[in-house]
Design goal:
The strands form two sheets. Strands 2, 4, 5, 6, 9, 10 and 11 form a seven-stranded mixed beta sheet that branches. A four-stranded antiparallel beta sheet has the order 1-3-8-7, with no helix packed on it. The chain is elongated. The protein is mainly beta and about 120 residues long. About 0% of the residues lie in helices and about 60% in strands. It has no helices and eleven strands. β7 and β8 form a beta hairpin.
Length: about 120
């Protein structure tokens, strides 16, 4: 089993910054491909992809956060970060860390998906 532990959420004024962290721990295979992503869900809305970073470091962002959010990773610590700057009221949501692990063996390739517990981000005026 793999566990994702999130931290860094809180209350911040519009225009401020927060940095979210997500550490993966547990039964992580050596040489596994690990693709991280951050999702968020506000009341009444569906969960949406915010940012993703692939095993080789390629980043993707939803249009609404481009230029304000930055996703990064520390592979040695199996940790992903989301730096959020110039926060807006509409950024208020529960943010979830997502990890997809691909393990390749001689006979097949296996994929596993894990989710963090969620961390609340509230932006006030």
């Amino acid at each position: 089993q793999v566990y994702l532990t999130e931290s860094g959420g809180g209350l911040v004024q519009a225009g401020g910054s927060l940095r979210l962290s997500c550490e993966a721990s547990g039964s992580i295979f050596r040489n596994a491909v690990m693709d991280f992503a951050w999702y968020r869900q506000a009341p009444g809305n569906e969960r949406e992809l915010v940012a993703a970073i692939s095993n080789d470091g390629r980043n993707r962002y939803t249009d609404s956060v481009k230029g304000r959010f930055t996703i990064s990773r520390n592979n040695g610590e199996n940790t992903v970060y989301l730096q959020m700057n110039s926060l807006k009221l509409e950024d208020t949501a529960v943010y979830y860390c997502n990890l997809e692990i691909t393990v390749t063996t001689i006979e097949r390739s296996l994929k596993y998906e894990y989710w963090g517990q969620g961390t609340q981000v509230t932006v006030s005026s």
